Amino acid sequence: MPVNERALRRRAVVAAVALVLTGLLGVRAPHAHAAAAEVAEVQLPAPTGPYPVGTTTRHLVDTSRTDPWHPGRRAHREVMVSLWYPAAREGWRAGGPTAPYMQPRAAGHFGRGTPLGAVDWSAVRTHARPDAPVARGARVRPVLLYSPGLGDPRTWNTSLVEDLASRGYVVVTVDHTYDASEVALPGGRLATSVLPALAARRDVDPAAVLRKAMRARVDDLRFVLDRLGDRRAARLPHALAAAMDLRHVGALGHSAGGFTAVQALYEDRRVDAAVDLDGTLAFPGPGGLSAVARAGVHRPLLLMGTDAADSGEYDRQPSWLALWRHSHGAWKGNATLTGAEHGAYTDATVVLPQLARQGTVPWSAVREAVGTVRPERAVGVTRAYVAAFFDRFLRGGGALPHFPELRER
Fold first, then answer.
1. Domain that holds residue 158
2. Dist CA 406 CA 25 (whole Å)
3. Is Ion transport tagged as a keyword (predicted)?
């Protein structure tokens, strides 16, 4: 979370101005304010739903695809996912420590060279217990697929994901390998992002890189959905596989992850509704509108923008306006988080104020990354509004709530 508009989008991992200017990138790390003398401490806000949360991680291999970022290796595409789900209260209480925010190998790489590197991310605890027993009951447990921003790991919205799981959803967070800053793979391997190296090359077309990334991302989501439908292939505990209602599936994501979610809604009939958290739906250059922006979608859609210069209401963004005009026959909504910047829909809203209080980053970095919106309100409003959207369209719930921080269209 940088200290000016362009730096806002330039996370340490994807340090390419060409990619930053597309507006697809998420927000992670501000420039250093001062060297941290001690390890900074970070805590996540507690989930607000009625269920405790369990989590489990799986390594999935798509034998139908070679990895698009390393085609010469002829290696199959590997994807790491975490499933977050409502857990049985008694079994949760009897469990061991809650899961770490990141596995040690990934944690040691995340935020390297930035103030986020001052945090021991493997020591940060979530509120979910690994492999906790699944909550019983006949209530529908829809499945939500979460895609992070370009260059971000699947962990960089754990606060929102845990909250959705506590409200009764099974949320599957997806690492887009070689796009994400780092992915810890089996066998002690750490797959790091190829994007910084590509961005440094003058002979590489940024639009082509982004198109390739988006194709890989959407294919990843569709592959994960395939695996979830095949209990044996996914190697999930029986109770968790039985708890998932794959007749009711939603997709959501931040920045490029929002683009991924909406494109998946367009391409895959199994996805019933999608939320785009401040993600542009276009590529740089002439003819850059995405297929989904040109064609529209015909299932429920929520666009959540910010007060950043290239965000806000749908008619301020050409790609969102095109999508809006071409989408018919289903509910569509647009809400703008007043006073927010691009990072307000990520764990930046949770992490940066804590780092500022410890002197690791200046408060100006918090304002420029998250905005002037009160961080705790940004977290609470986003959690409640996203959950209400999926409640309405995956569970037959009622109208979405109104918040003074949201401008609705």
1. 5-408
2. 23
3. no
Phi, psi (degrees; rounded to nearest 5) at 347: -70, -5
What amino acid occupies position 161?
V
Strands (E) located in 49-123: 53-66, 76-86
pTM for this entry: 0.92
CATH number of the structural domain spanning residue 208: 3.40.50.1820
- Convert the pLDDT of each residue in 285-321 to its tens digit: 888 999 999 999 999 999 999 998 888 899 999 999 9
3-50 pLDDT, tens per residue?
232 332 333 223 333 333 233 334 444 444 444 447 899 999 999 999
Measure the CA–CA gap between 172 and 165, rounded to whole angstroms: 10
For 296-335, b where at least 16 C-beta lie within 10 A, e where not — what string? bbebbbbbbbbbbebbbbbeebbbbebbbeebeeeebbbb
Euclidean distance between CA atoms 116 and 182, whole angstroms: 14
Tokens of 262: 């909406």
Number of domains in the chain: 1
